[in-house]
Amino acid sequence: MPASSLSPVPTPHARDRLLDAATALFASHGYQAIGLRDLASHLGLRAGSLYHHIESKQGLLFELIESSLTDLLYETRQCLKGARATSERLPCFVQAFVTYSQANPDKLVLLMREAMNLNEDQLLQVDQLKAEYIALLSDIVAAECGLTTPRARSIAHAVMGLLCGQAQWGKVMTAREQLVTFVQGIVGTGKTAVPQ
After folding, report:
1. I need a surface site. Which of 43, 55, 107, 168 has the fewest CB within 10 A?
2. Are 58 and 117 in contact (CB under 8 A)?
3. Handedness of CA 21, 23, 26, 28 (dihedral sign)
4. Is 92 within 8 Å of 83 (Cβ atoms)?
5. What percent of the chain has pLDDT over 90?
6. Where is the HTH tetR-type domain (predicted)?
7. What mean pLDDT do residues 92-111 have?
8. Mean pLDDT, to the nearest integer, of 96-113?
9. CA-based angle 54:59:65, to the nearest 5?
């Protein structure tokens, strides 16, 4: 068979390039502002060729958000395995979040800002992953403070507000050690606060 009649073999990194470009463009310009033509143009492709790699723009966004949350969960669990004592689990959790957010700032933007563009089924799946992540932190808070699950969950949400707020500024503005101290302060306040 002549070489000219062979179909081009897709490069193994083409999909990775697509995912990286979509993450960067959605994070910097917003999901609504970027069309598939923009994405294809950025990659030097025709818009129609993207459908060899994705089902739809919204499906692409869901894949990016879901994989980001899955990676964050995995990396956090791996970090927590290294904790030798209960008191080390909270700093490990914060360390995992900071490391992930510094290595993947665009992915974090998608997690915090673009999930609203997903459909109900996709949002439900994303919310389940977020619930798993909050449950990890809630369990740490409950074990460290001896709190009930609902109270520990409230504190976990406050901690996540602090961590995500720091990350929203583009980079963690506070040294990791200080951030761990702030988080421990929030958790410690939950330990001493009078239940309502």
Report:
1. 55
2. yes
3. negative
4. yes
5. 58
6. 12-72
7. 92
8. 92
9. 115
Q: Can you give the pLDDT at residue 171? A: 52
Instruction: Collect all residues with Cβ–Cβ distance below 8 Å to 167 and sequence separation of at least 6.
Output: 97, 101, 105, 108, 112
Do the beta carbons of residue 107 and residue 173 sit within 8 Å?
A: no
pLDDT single digits (tens) 112-165: 999 999 999 999 999 999 999 999 999 999 998 888 889 999 999 999 988 888
Contact, 129 vs 69, CB < 8 A?
yes
Tokens found for residue 143: 């074990």
Mean pLDDT across the stretch 76-90?
A: 93
Instruction: Report whether 116 contacts 162 (CB < 8 A).
Output: no
| CA dist., res. 7 & res. 9, Å (int) | 6
Q: Which two tokens stand for residue 53?
A: 């790699």
Using only C-alpha atoms, the chain has a radius of gyration, in whole angstroms, of 20
* Residue 120, amino acid: E
Q: Hey, what amino acid is at 55?
A: E
**In this structure, are residues 166 and 178 in contact, taking their beta carbons and an 8 Å threshold?**
no
d(CA 168, CA 161): 10
Structural tokens at position 121:
């089924």
Query: Which domains are delineated in the chain?
Result: 11-54 (1.10.10.60), 57-192 (1.10.357.10)
- The residue behind tokens 């209960």 is 86
In contact, 101 and 95? CB cutoff 8 Å: no
In sequence order, which residues have a C-beta less than 8 Å from that of residue 17 and are 6 or more positions away? 43
